[in-house]
Design brief:
By secondary structure, this protein is an alpha+beta fold. Helix content is 40%, strand content 11%. It folds into three domains: 61-281, Aminopeptidase; 308-445, Serine Threonine Protein Phosphatase 5, Tetratricopeptide repeat; 469-642, no CATH class. Helix 9 packs antiparallel against helix 10 and helix 11 (360-366) runs antiparallel to helix 12.
Length: 643
């Protein structure tokens, strides 16, 4: 059974129910968080749409369907591609199906065909722009490069059935967003026909989705109608049934849950493991226990919910005093409270979990209270009962904290918009570092370990905690290759400037002009790339200061780099290019040329969370604003010249 306490809202919904299923769900394409009333306009269509002035209909196909339940009648299905905005047409197509009976529309649905390869370098940002549904699925399932999140592949609980893996990282997608059926035509096969028509349309022409994905949901107004006059617990049960009904519908079409997410997938490959999984074998999310205070009435004047929060905290103080202490006291005061509370008679209180499965250590970790975390681990967790306890999401206290930190590192919510924060990541706070260290059993972490915890290193080999072995190798390759290329024809100013115009883009314009007459300037600029390579070979992070120190220690003669600096040249003009070249040839952030060329050397290096975070590492090196802009022309020019 599903419940409504998942952290994400759901989107696509179906109203065509099979025999024996609940038909309370109107299955319009509106999530439970949608506050707009579409009662008279369930498809969000304007008058101009009805009059034929909406977006053009392309690739129109018409079919008829005979319905034999309970008596024979025919419906007409029309599927087509809608012309999209120019900014999206390169990578997205909107596909629509309508169903009519006796000239009246009785059903409508749509989905988005996504050419993932066109937006992989900025997957989250691109998927966030067109609509909330695409954004929701992108952030639920995938990382910033459109790869299935690691937890849905390898986590002992969050992987669900374990049927889905890295195959979901590749290929185009069809996101099924919206299906609506008039209530009088449900449970007759119309919904299945519409979904199948959409999937068929997604596979027609040059479209080739590897996976169809849906996040089942319900229509807010239908739930509200059924819940009128009911208790909060009854309202919750109605929502759960609506989720269960929508999930059962998609499972009947072959969809299976992806990990422990709310999303379901259908692989195009008939031999995919999920295709052989029976409905009864699919993974169900754990139920949320009943809230004994569901029926507490709120105050009419409590507009901001302050009184309700106060009541909730008071109830927590009575039922979960240890949890309450974590949420209400400073770290040191919390430890004092624990000391006074502990006794042989109340040992079971320390392992008690709330209705979300969180024990006191879950709360202490996620509230970033390292002294409390350490006290709990040293004084009440001899049997590791709280340290290994899993909450409703399947997370231990350590995993809950790491998940929270990952979210803070990568994104931030601003109203309805999700902002990608990965490139501006500056490291975790000291309290977060100390909490993770304690949960990992690091009593006195070394300076290197502290830096690795600060910057989220997962390989144990990041230099200064942030420069992973794979990124170091990518940067070193670019520094060495670029230096070698800039050294070619350096005596011929005309050829050098013509061949390397894209490499000197970040050099000041007056110096660029002087490159045409001053060999010393050309050589000085070229040497900075060699200084970067020297730093990387010495296992140093290539910051601007580090590269200047390498130059000073080099004893360079003649002093061409000094000349470049004295004329106003900067280390940044070269270092930024190194990062850009490495990013643009990365297998996920760019075109993959680096991996294609150096796969044998890369494969023997350990993988790390920081391998592809060029923006954040560049920022730490003194290069702000690198972002994820991909310039394939520059990358192609370099590889052509190299070959």
């Amino acid at each position: 059974m599903e419940d409504d306490f998942d952290s994400e809202s759901s989107s696509a919904q179906l109203g065509d129910l099979e025999p024996g299923e609940d038909d309370n769900n109107d299955e319009d394409g509106i999530s439970e968080d949608d506050e707009e009333d579409h009662s008279d306009d369930p498809y969000g269509m304007s008058d101009s749409d009805e009059d034929g002035f909406g977006p053009p209909e392309l690739e129109v196909e018409m079919t008829t369907l005979t319905i034999a339940n309970p008596e024979n009648f025919q419906v007409a299905l029309k599927s087509y591609r809608q012309e999209d905005d120019d900014e999206f047409e390169e990578w997205m197509q909107t596909l629509i199906v309508t169903c009519t009976y006796d000239g009246k529309e009785i059903g409508r649905g749509f989905g988005r065909y996504v050419k993932r390869g066109f937006i992989r370098d900025n997957f989250w940002r691109n998927m966030e722009e067109p609509c909330e549904e695409l954004s929701s699925i992108a952030f639920k399932l995938f990382d910033r490069y459109g790869r299935l999140k690691e937890e849905y592949i390898n986590h002992p609980i969050r992987k669900g059935t374990g049927c889905w893996g890295t195959e979901l990282d590749l290929g185009n997608l069809f996101i099924l967003e919206y299906i609506s059926i008039d209530k009088g035509f449900r449970r007759k096969g119309v919904g299945k026909a519409m979904v199948n028509a959409l999937i068929a349309k997604a596979h027609s022409g040059e479209r080739n989705p590897a996976f169809t994905i849906v996040s089942p949901g319900y229509l807010t107004r239908d739930v509200e109608k059924e819940s009128h006059g009911k208790s909060k617990q009854e309202h919750r049960e109605i929502i759960n049934r609506a989720h269960d009904t929508a999930s059962a519908f998609y499972r009947s079409l072959g969809f299976r849950r992806i990990g422990a997410s709310r999303c379901f997938g259908l692989a195009t490959d008939l031999s995919h493991k999920a295709r052989t999984l029976l409905v009864s074998e699919d993974f169900d999310l754990p139920e949320l226990g009943p809230d004994p205070h569901d029926d507490d009435k709120g105050d009419d004047d409590d507009f901001f919910g302050t009184k309700a929060k106060e009541k909730a905290m008071n109830r927590m103080k009575e039922e979960f005093p240890l949890h309450h202490a974590i949420l209400s006291l400073a770290d040191e005061k919390c430890v004092e409270y624990f000391e006074s509370y502990k006794s042989p008679d109340n040992i079971d209180e320390w392992v008690k979990s709330d209705r979300f499965g969180n024990n006191v250590l879950h709360h202490a970790a996620c509230e970033l209270k390292p002294k409390s975390v350490q006290w709990l681990l040293h004084n009440v967790d001899d049997g590791e009962r709280i340290g290994s306890g899993r909450n409703r999401e399947g997370h231990t206290p350590l995993e809950s904290l790491l998940d929270q930190l990952e979210n803070k590192r990568s994104k931030r919510q601003h109203g309805m918009m999700t902002v990608v924060m990965s490139d501006s990541f500056g490291g975790f706070t000291p309290d977060a570092i100390s909490s993770v260290a304690a949960l990992r059993g690091l009593k006195a972490p070394s300076e290197a370990q502290v830096l690795q915890l600060k910057y989220g290193c997962t390989c144990g080999g990041c230099i200064d905690g942030l420069l992973s072995p794979r990124m170091k190798f990518a940067l070193l390759c670019q520094a060495e290759i670029t230096h070698d290329m800039l050294s070619m024809d350096i005596a011929d100013a005309e050829i050098w400037c013509m061949m390397h115009d894209y490499m000197i883009e970040h050099v000041a314009p007056d110096i660029q002009r002087n490159f045409r007459t001053n060999k010393s300037l050309r050589q000085g600029f070229s040497n900075i790339f060699d200084h970067a390579a020297t730093a990387l070979r010495s296992n140093e992070v290539p910051t601007i200061d580090t590269l200047i120190n390498v130059w000073k220690d080099s004893g360079e003669w003649p002093p061409v780099t000094r000349n470049f600096y004295q004329r106003g040249g900067t280390t940044e003009s070269a270092l930024r290019r190194i990062f850009e070249f490495a990013r643009d040839q990365d297998e996920w952030a760019g075109d993959g040329d680096h991996m294609e060329t150096f796969s044998e050397q890369v494969d023997v290096l350990p993988k790390c969370r920081n391998d592809h975070e060029f923006g954040f590492v560049a920022l730490a090196c003194g290069i702000p604003g690198l972002g994820q802009y991909h310039n394939p022309q520059i990358a192609n020019n370099m590889m052509f010249m190299l070959r």
